[in-house]
Amino acid sequence: MAESLLQLDDLAVHFKVGSTFAGGIHTLKAVDGVTIDVKPGECLGLVGESGCGKSTLALAIMGLIPPTRGHVALDGRDLSERERLETARTVQMVFQDPYASLNPRQTVRRTLADPLRIHGVTDKAEVEARVADMLARVGLRPEHADRYPHEFSGGQRQRIGIARALILKPKLVICDEPVSALDVSIRAQIINLLLELKDELGLAYIMISHDLGVVEHVSDRVAVMYLGRIVEQGGWQEIFEDPRHPYTRALIAAIPDPFQRAAVPARAKAKGEIASALAPPPGCHFHPRCPLKADICVSQDPPLEAIAAGHRAACHFRDRSG
Amino acid sequence: MTTDPLLKVDGLRIALSGSKTTYNAVEEVSFDIGRGEAFGLVGESGCGKSITALAVMGLLKRPLSLGGGRIVLDGEEIQDASPAEMRELRGSRIGMIFQEPMTALNPLSPVGRQIAEMFVLHQKAGWSEAMDRAEEALRQVRVPSPERRIKDYPHQLSGGMRQRVMIAIALACSPELLIADEPTTALDVTVQAEIIDLMAELCAAKGTAILMISHDLGLVANMCKRVAVMYAGRIVEAQPAEAIFADPQHPYTQGLVSSLPRLGERSRRGRQRLREISGVVPSIQAYPPGCRFNPRCPRATDVCLSVPPDITPLPADSLVRCHHHG
Questions:
Q1: From A140's CA, which of A15, A29, A33, B256 has a CA 20 to 30 Å away?
Q2: Do B261 and A191 touch (CB under 8 A)?
């Protein structure tokens, strides 16, 4: 087995919310005991609905939020032992909204050149060459370097966002909903570009998305999160063809599917809505919405257990396939 | 009379007044919706689908205005109706659901009151009777414990619950037509599925026709009997929902259908490079001459650059607007 590029070990990020005056202080368990790894050159799809903790997980991996418990290790070394800049050279992020994530007062050249200078590339010719090379790789023209973000369309802006993430030659790129803010007819361009760059540069991705079509298309492995925990993980084929957690099945069943191509019947849909992370239900967090709910689900929290090599699900009924 | 469509939009043109010039944000848009029929209008942002719906509701505001065409509801032309007449129609005969329920609901009024208002305004009910009926309406949209929820303010409800309240308001007076503009775009996928099912079920029970507006072709095709695709202010194709996926005729629709990764596709055929639609959606100030899709179209020829294509009728109540369709 290849050495892990990223290793999360029982990672938890809890927030204190509220005040001592208004209703007291509560603990919000945004991420609650996540163990997973990403190997070099691999794409891990991370799926879940809003509030499940996937973006908090991304920030913890970037070192932007300290973990409450557990560890994040990059290249075999714990994040706390690494310099901030060293981490930034290893892991970078592409954000959802290319309108909000670029500085409107900086030219594309400056947006791409600043990280290089900060990381010690001072030779002007080298900076120029690397900026030009990166623009070409993401499908922009050399003259685009002197323009400002407002002069670009949404798809082009996302190309700039990708160029900024890749300019330091990171090994891991976290893509947080990279196409959901784009026009439908533009999404294919960006997905194709991300896959090409992955092959050319040997990148590993964490692809955060609620669009299961996109996740199936790009991922090697997939992890499904619900209320701060991973409820199922496995190879993309296992997750999409033999999902074992009822929540995974509910997500797949929820996709409008005019041709009934997915391997999950419509009756697998979930009821109700995601519970508040401030007061998650006891036992299995998913039980109030689950079609398989039994007494044990209310009283006992199911551990994430193996079904086959590499395929794990946190469900008391993980042996049922439907 | 029963064979007449419930809603007929004919040659709709919507003008956008700029400081110097006036643009046509929507033009030559025509479609019919039968009684109880679910009809979908699909397109990307800026294609004119939402303002088409606003025009039907008589809600165009400056700089937008109706530039021409007819809107016929149940045999009666409503494009020139007065604001007071349109106010009477909206709510009683045309219900509306918008994308973001938090901005569509009044934050300062309990949701029960906002539903009850419909009965008071449109059916001359007294407030206490109206509140009883509001509770029943909440029960119908499956809000748990409606007797307590009618006293809640919008901020006390989740996104899905708020959209249920919107549906209750829209369907309170059993309108003949429900206009739903991206009703689930702000919701999580599992909640979206529930809301769509609920909307379809209630409309079927009440015999309400639906004009569903969305950027999501799959969602619309699942719910609607017929689908029209808009691009840059015009309808470029209309077909029965199954056909729009199985046999799209316009290069734009073909691009949309094949450019998105579909669930199950990778298992069956392995990972294929996604087919891209090159270029970007043109802005309204710079619509290209001829066919508006020509700069992005793989089949564009000289005629496409100069002559705007007319509508070609196809069998099964379908149409396409392309010189080289098929």
A1: B256
A2: yes
